[in-house]
Amino acid sequence: MERLRQLLLRTDYTIDGVRERLGSMAASALAREELVPALRVTAGGDPLATLIRLWWLGVPVPAAALGPEVLDSGLVEEAGGGEVRATVHLQPWETGGYLVSDRKVRPGDPPLRPDHVVGAGGASANLAQLVARRPVGSALDLGTGCGVQVLHLAGRAERVVATDLNPRALELARLSWALSGVEGVEAREGSLYDPVEGERFDLVVSNPPFVIAPGGEGKLTYRESGEAGDAFCRELVRRTPAYLNPGGQAHFLANWLHVEGEDWHERVGGWLRETGCDGWVVQRDVQDPAEYVELWLRDAARQGTPRYTELYDRWLSWFDEHKVEGIGFGWITMRASGTLDPVVRVEHLDHQVVLPVGDYVDDVLDSIAAAHRAGDLGTARLRTAAGLLDERVGLPGAEDPIRIVLRQTQGLRRSREVGTVEAALAGVCDGELALGPLLNVIAELVGEGEMPDADAIRPLIAEGYFLL
């Protein structure tokens, strides 16, 4: 693997090298599962073009164009006519490493094997962007798949344990780590926390099999747990506190159901309120049942197959039976704060946020906890968060605006409509004076009458407009 790794680097088979060679048109076409533009720009037969065709596009290439580093790797097989084909998908990753997975499935390919190991994509990148960046002593990658999260953890965790229910996933993950120069990872086979029973970690990350499917035939280990509905994600959250060190954090991707007559905030928030940890849930997207089914049937290359309609109908019938109106996708963060008064925040954020969230996720959790646990806010000394904008909308020439919006230009980029008192407070809040007297003076100046309750500022602290 080290010989192969050096060849890949020499040939510039890297994220930047592949992107530059493919160009925007071929890359966009590949996102639509169209290979022709990519085949055209890699037709020259030079070393980089050959490796892109072999590892990324999955098409046969002449054996004579490859050196022993590839031919002796055990990752290619004869394809006839003096050509070889890759038996795996080998992709460069943003960390500078490489990931080995099963070959990408495209329309017309045979059905996926149940133990298929999927490569890294948007979900993997989303989770890596969410995870806190601070160094830790120990980290657990639960359901490692092709090993992608370990590449991100290796530089900031002294000890890394990676688990997966699928033995084939661990086999390919070990190749990923070897090709990436990552050593010392403890790989263990088993479901959920079973392989690490009795151990605790400073950081737990997981891109679990969260896809909500009716079960039965065709279950794919990498995306479906076999549990009913969103029960697997609920169980993952419920069991996590027992494996976190004091102050430890966990970051997960998850799906959850929107059920008729039920508030999804209460559904998912209820999972965390049972844990004793501080929690933060962010819903990034919601799909109706038909969109959801189409997404995952397309993921398994079922479109255009004889059973597509049957599978589609059976999946929708399951959603109808369980009164499912939509499926939410987002992230869940937990922190073992050690308090008897944990706080859980559940919200929907579908706008663009500053990435990586991991750079400031600790600050977000701190703000949520501070707003919840602060006693008398009237004596608190607040500061206005950096990068805050005051946007006012009004009629031309009017003395007062129709509406005032505080907008964050950093972090989660939240926006909130506020009154004149809150807007004035944002302009003078510098940590020198207590909130109570400040509000009293502002109320007199703007003519709002009685001093507003200091507790009315609590939501603005939780959302990061003001800092304690």
The number of helical elements comes to 16
> DSSP strand (E) fraction?
15-25%
What about the largest sheet? Answer: 8 strands, mixed
Kindly, what is the distance between the CA atoms of the first and last residues, rounded to a whole number of angstroms? Answer: 51 Å
The spatial strand order of the largest sheet comes to 8-7-6-9-10-12-11-13
Structure explained in plain terms:
This protein is α/β, with parallel strands linked by helices. Helix content is 34%, strand content 23%. The protein is built from 16 helices and 18 strands. The strands form 5 sheets. The chain has an 8-stranded mixed β-sheet with strand order 8-7-6-9-10-12-11-13, sandwiched between helices. Strands 1-3-2 form a 3-stranded antiparallel β-sheet. Strand 6, helix 7 and strand 7 form a beta-alpha-beta unit. Helix 14 crosses helix 15.
Strand and helix layout:
Blueprint lengths: L1 H9 L4 H17 L4 H6 L5 H11 L3 E2 L5 H4 L4 E5 L2 E4 L2 E4 L5 E4 L20 H9 L5 E7 L5 H6 L3 E8 L2 H13 L6 E4 L11 E6 L24 H9 L4 E16 L4 H10 L4 E10 L1 H11 L8 H14 L2 E12 L8 E5 L12 H13 L9 E2 L3 E6 L9 E6 L6 E4 L1 H9 L6 H12 L11 H5 L3 E2 L1
Parallel strand pairs: 6-7, 6-9, 7-8, 9-10, 11-13
Antiparallel strand pairs: 1-3, 2-3, 4-5, 10-12, 11-12, 14-18, 15-16, 16-17
Helix pairs in contact: 11-12, 14-15
